[in-house]
Structure formats: structure tokens, C-alpha cells
Amino acid sequence: MTIEHKRSSKGEIEDLIRARYSLIWVTSPEETRVEESLRKTCVEREMRLEVWSITEGFKTIANGQGTRDVKDPMKAIDHVIRAEGRALFVLRDFHPFLKEPAVVRRLRDAATELRKTKKSLLVLSPVTKIPPELEKSISAVVDWELPNRTEIEQAARKVLPALPQSTHSPSSQMARSPHAASSQHGCPAAPHGVQRSARPGPLTIQTRSSQHCWFPSHGCPSPRHAPPLFSERAAPSPRFF
Asked: What count of other Cβ atoms lies within 10 Å of the Cβ of residue 220?
């Protein structure tokens, strides 16, 4: 039996760049995570990575530094075509501009010109809206995968403070001290001499002043005026539910 392992999105992009695919569409709402993966790829392959947005223009984030105040979509494509060296260019949220015929035409020109170079152009968008005129020019469409367990753990470590040792965790403290568990719920501790039952059944405790129903599973006594489970005259044997 042959087991096929799915190629990661990062691996797919590496293969497409290596194969000189000139125009790639990536669908993902997580710009930061995708661009960080692309940055690592460009560092490994010694490629320059430039990211464009309508608000900031071009910004180099791998194997170089600097910005270019090019915010017009047509001029952005022209910059990609004229740029020199090995590079990967990312156009953020470019799909709204593809409603303009001139932009679509210029992007098709770029796809043809970039095949002769060591550059690739990547459109990063949260949606896949490709005009029919551009479908044949786009080499590949990559639906970026969701974060795996390792990525989620790494993100959690950045956001959450360091967790305490297991010996100091609240659960272990409650396990060692029944009184601590009761106090956390705002309930008095179990009366002296009363042992907790391993099964979630109520115990009846007879005192001089009043009668309480003790729930070992919750660690809290219930006043006698709570749901009348037992008679005041006699304390029956425990009931288990």
C-alpha cells in the first residue's frame, strides 16, 4: 500500500519558484503567517522578498532593506518587471484592482516577461477572485493550509506567559489540599472526620443546629433548605446517581 504525504504550502511554493513559475496566486487571510513562511524560503534560497500594499508601497523584508513609495497598481507591476536579480514579489489584496482591464493586461504582460528571469510574482489575497482573462496566465493557485499543532503552540508561547510547574499548578494544589478546593468555590471545608467519597453521591451530616447535605464531587455542603433530599428525623444511607 502506498501512503501519500500531502506537501505543505511552503513546500509547494518552493517547488513553484524552483520551476520558474512566474505568476502564483495564494489564498489566505493570514498575511503575517504566509509572509513569514515566504521570508524563510527566500532566506534559504538567497532571494530578495519585496511586499507591496496599496497603503505602504513596496517594502523589502528579506535579503535587503528599504521601501519604495509606489502605491499605484500599474506602477507596482512595472516595478516588478524592471527589478533586477533573484526576487519574489508579493502583492497584497490585489484582487479589487483586477476589475480594471488595464491592470489585467499589464499583469498578463508581467507573467510573460518574468518567465525569462529569476523572479516570481505572487498575489496574496483572502479570496480567490481571478478574472477569466487571467486564468491561463496564472501558473498555480495555492490555498494556504491552516496552522498545524507546532505553529499553534509556538504562537501560544508568544502570547501567554510561561506556565508554572505542574507541582505548583492549581489542580495539583487542590488535589493535595481539599480545603483549598472548597475555599476556591466559596464553600466551607468538609467537617472534621468526614471522608470524601470517590463516587458522586450526597452524604447527610447531622449537626446540633442544622442538617447539611454534603456533595463530595463538588466539595460544598448544601443547606437543609436546598432541595429536600432527606428527612430531618433520620439520615438515610447515601444515594448514588
From this structure: 18
Q: What is the pLDDT of residues 101-160, one digit of tens each?
A: 999 999 999 999 999 999 999 999 999 999 999 999 999 999 988 877 777 777 677 777
Domain identity same for 219 and 145? no
Chain CA centroid to CA 119, Å: 30
Give the predicted TM-score (pTM) of the model.
0.61
Q: Which of 123, 57, 122 is nearest to 96 (CA)?
A: 123
Say if residue 139 is in the same domain as residue 97. Answer: yes
How far from the centroid of its chain's Cα atoms is residue 154's Cα?
10
How many other CB atoms are there within 10 angstroms of residue 209's CB atom? 6
Cell numbers found for residue 67: 521601501
Name the grid cell of 1.
500500500
Total structural domains within the chain: 2
